[in-house]
Write a structure and sequence with these properties.
- This protein is an alpha+beta fold.
- The chain has a domain at 5-34.
- The chain has 1 helix and 2 strands.
- The chain has a two-stranded parallel sheet with strand order 1-2.
- Strand 1 (5-10), helix 1 and strand 2 form a beta-alpha-beta unit.
Length: 45
């Protein structure tokens, strides 16, 4: 039995955050719920 993890990424506008997002979106047991970025406040990340 596998457990689905709900994940939020803080600081996703940089290179590391973007790579983490890419990896997690492809992971079969992870659901990305939120992505935030202080640098891009008020716009879609």
């Amino acid at each position: 039995m596998s457990t689905q993890l709900n994940v939020s990424i803080v600081g996703a506008s940089g290179y590391v955050g973007g790579e983490l997002l890419r990896l997690l979106l492809d992971h079969p047991h992870v659901t990305v719920n939120q992505v935030t970025s202080e640098r891009n406040a008020g716009s879609f990340v």
